[in-house]
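Changelog entry: the beta-lactamase record was regenerated in this release. Current contents:
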Amino acid sequence: MRKIFLLLFLFAVVVDAAAQKKDKKLQKQVEELIKGFNGDVGVYVKNLKNNKTVAVNADTVFPTASMVKIPILLGIMDKINRGELAYHQPLQYKDSLLYAGVDILGSFKNDEKIELSKVMMLSLTTSDNTASLWLQSLAGGGLRINQILDSLGFVNTRVNSRTAGREAIRNVYGWGQTSPREMATLMEEIVKGEIISKERSAQMLRLLGRNYWDEEAISQIPSDVFVADKNGAVNESRSEVLFVNGHGARYIFCICTKNNKDQSWESNNEAWVLTRKLSKLLWEYFE
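Regenerated structure tokens:
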């Protein structure tokens, strides 16, 4: 009987400690901000200075769209760390790699040379799909990337496109899937140097700090603050994950949306407006 009471006591202590890590004031503000959104939205926020969090549908699975390029980068860095690829390794582009669109790499001529480091830069900075699919293949494919994610404890974050056995779920989530908590946690572990190695994590963070697409969440952060970011967008889903460090603030947040009613591509898209408002709220709160 004493053991039972002890276990119940310890459980209560753990639950209470977890509750204390919630930022209740900010939680209410975020819940109020997202109220009435015409679609499904999930948010996860973590203040890295005191580890307090905000979570709304944080464990719900959402499409990644181009945020999947972070797990793909992880797969490449794993290959580099194993000595199977080199960071500045010369590669030869082939027309067969083209993914139709307006990507920079897709404008290359057949047999042109480019370094692996520049392919990674294009994938993360301009969100080049041709570059990203090439990297996915070089990383060993979606299956291998998913195995790495699984080994790191990520259960919701997966590559679906061009991955055997995931054809049906690709029809639901597209290229990749994740949850706000997992994508933010992946970013946090990169920041802390815990993904693969400190050196590889640092390389990943620098790549993520050069996002060309800076008109949504990033636009609400002062330009002299370091931001590592990856966003993703398809018709029914707009999402973004950020690490923000500067002016006394140090935090990570991820917003994911799906089943969005507004599928426009103008700056006043409802999900993008919400993303900017959330980013502004968090910056002003943490600064």
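The domain at 25-286 is CATH 3.40.710.10 (Beta-lactamase).
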